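Predict the assembly for these two chains.
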Amino acid sequence: MDDMTEGRNNTTAADGEQLLTFIVDGKEYGVDILRVQEIRGWSAPMPIPNTPAYIKGVINIRGDVVPIADLRERLRLPALSYGDTTVVVVLRIAGGHASAAEASTPHERVMGIIVDAMSDVTKIPLKSIKPAPVFAETLEKPLTRGIATLEDKMITILDVDRIFSGAGDVTAAQAA
Amino acid sequence: MLEKLGDPLVHLVRNSLDHGLESPAERLAAGKPPQGTLELRDYHQGSSIVVEVADDGRGLDLAKILASARRRGLVGPDETPSDSALREMIFAPGFSTASAVTDVSGRGVGMDVVRRNIKELAGEIAVESTPGRGTRVALRLPLTLAIVDGQLVRVGPHSYVIPLLSIVDLVELDRTLVGWVEGGREVYRLGDELVPLVPLHPLLGVGADGREARMLVVAEADGQRVGLLVDELQSQQQVVVKSLESNYERVEGVSGATILGDGGVAFILDVGGLRRLDRARRRTAPAREQVAA
């Protein structure tokens, strides 16, 4: 956990941060490129029973069982059927609790997010990254880590560790 | 798991080489070939995987163990423990019979640590020894950590693995043998026994009912039998267990996942967890999804 946070600080501590950006519902989002393990085409996942709807299931990545989440549904955007340009961005996520035996050691999980299409790899100057305004009515911790304000566009920077957390909150909200 | 197994194995091999195997001269005198044999073997047995370290050396010297145990006060002067109790002594913390510490072993930090490591893996350790013939140490580890014999079943569009160990019987559903109790709960007559029917479709979130289910997997968990309704029986095969928790989290009713021959992922079902899911679901939503409707 520590070294991952450090890794992130290193990128921000320099003159800027390198983002992998992608499109969801016509908007551009970005994640720290150092957290990206790989980018894959769409392949149908095996659904996991009794999980929040945005968790689409697990896929086999070279023998590793990797859960994937639909970012549209996670962001509460309308669903879209998956097609040729649908892409799975495989991320390395901090934390987790692998098993009792490994509980003492820091653990890194591998998880994928489904996005509409890839966009770019961009270096964002540090001064262009603004914190996201806090909307008081949301109880959940925000997924947005900041917003990159460039001359011609804005990119919403996601906190990858938050994408898969708060799953319980969402299920509770849906049940209520 | 491998790193936890590595140290104990190294220790056992060292023990065999140092304490077990005799010098070529001693071996010749005992009528054995001058070259000693140390064997490492692994095999499945029931629900376990067994790793064996066996040598054809002198065997455990029970007299020496007894003397050493007496010296340490583990055994009173008048007590004469059985051979198996003496073999058990080698697992006592700090126990050693070696008269001198060598490069290879003899420091007395040993078998107790080995046993502790194996216990941490939920395994067991057993020692067999015949004087003059050799020593065999067997590490028995639960197979759930590695490979499972499974029955592949189809439920809706997906395949799942039910461990053969929890399966009692596989029968084709005969709808004339389905009975009812209150709450829409159905039971199946299996010889003299009535087993509760559990349609897997709603529990696994694939389709609302089990109307099209044709096969019954009679399974047992916590001493209770259930009839799991599935669409089709597929092959029986050994599957390598992959953790779902390492990248996600624990999911009730699922003990792990595996990769099938076609590269797809299949979940390994946990019968005890499925029973709990079924009970919870029936409490919250009194269902009307009879098979024999």
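The longest strand of chain A covers residues 16-24. Residues 2-13 of chain A form the longest helix (12 residues).
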